[in-house]
């Protein structure tokens, strides 16, 4: 197994640098189920952020891309169940993808509840908004 950085997946997906896109395509097409590419949680979260913020992809497009990558047997995602659940929920959630991943990690770890100051994240199941007093 080899590890993949965010920029390799970005170049492969958006093809905004011809040489890097070709190199990324060659690398990704060389991967197999027996010799897969590993995508850690941080790369997944960063990929979603880059596609959304730097390239203007909407939530549905990003979720479709993540789901397509997840279905590839030549890629192994860290916390794959969390990623799949986050991608599915991301399309209609007000919370960000990273918040969905944090919520998934807390749930998987048996850490309840998830305390946050983020009002959107506090809407997630198992999350609690920490109240702040006015000074």
How would you sum up this structure in a few lines?
By secondary structure, the protein is mainly α. Helices cover 53% and strands 10% of the residues.
Plain-language structure description:
With 135 residues, the chain is mostly helical. The protein has one domain (2-110): Rossmann fold. It has helices at residues 6-14, 18-30, 41-54, 59-70, 80-90, 97-109; strands spanning 2-3, 37-39, 75-77, 114-116, 127-129. The chain has a 3-stranded parallel beta sheet with strand order 1-2-3.
User: Strand order across the biggest sheet?
Assistant: 1-2-3
Number of helices: 6
- In CATH's first tier, which class applies? Alpha Beta
Indicate the overall shape: globular
Q: Calculate the terminal CA-CA distance, rounded to whole Å.
A: 54 Å
Q: Structurally, how many domains make up the residues?
A: 1
As a whole number of angstroms, the C-alpha radius of gyration is 17 Å
The run of helices and strands is: EHHEHHEHHEE
Structural class designation:
mainly alpha
Biggest beta sheet attributes? 3 strands, parallel
Indicate the percent of residues in helices.
Answer: 40-55%
Q: Total number of β-strand segments? A: 5
Task: Describe the secondary structure blueprint for this structure.
Layout: E1 2-3, H1 6-14, H2 18-30, E2 37-39, H3 41-54, H4 59-70, E3 75-77, H5 80-90, H6 97-109, E4 114-116, E5 127-129
Parallel strand pairs: 1-2, 2-3, 4-5
């Amino acid at each position: 197994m080899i590890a993949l950085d965010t920029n390799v997946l970005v170049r492969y997906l958006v093809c905004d640098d011809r040489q890097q896109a070709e190199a990324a395509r060659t690398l990704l097409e060389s991967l197999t189920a027996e010799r897969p590419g590993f995508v850690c949680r941080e790369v997944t979260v960063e990929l979603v952020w880059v596609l959304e913020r730097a390239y203007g992809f909407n939530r549905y497009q990003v979720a479709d891309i993540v789901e397509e990558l997840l279905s590839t047997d030549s890629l192994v995602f860290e916390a794959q169940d969390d990623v799949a659940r986050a991608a599915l929920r991301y399309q209609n959630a007000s919370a960000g993808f990273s918040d969905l991943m944090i919520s998934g990690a807390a749930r998987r770890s048996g850490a309840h509840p998830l305390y946050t100051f983020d009002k959107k994240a506090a809407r997630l199941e198992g999350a609690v908004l920490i109240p702040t007093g006015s000074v």
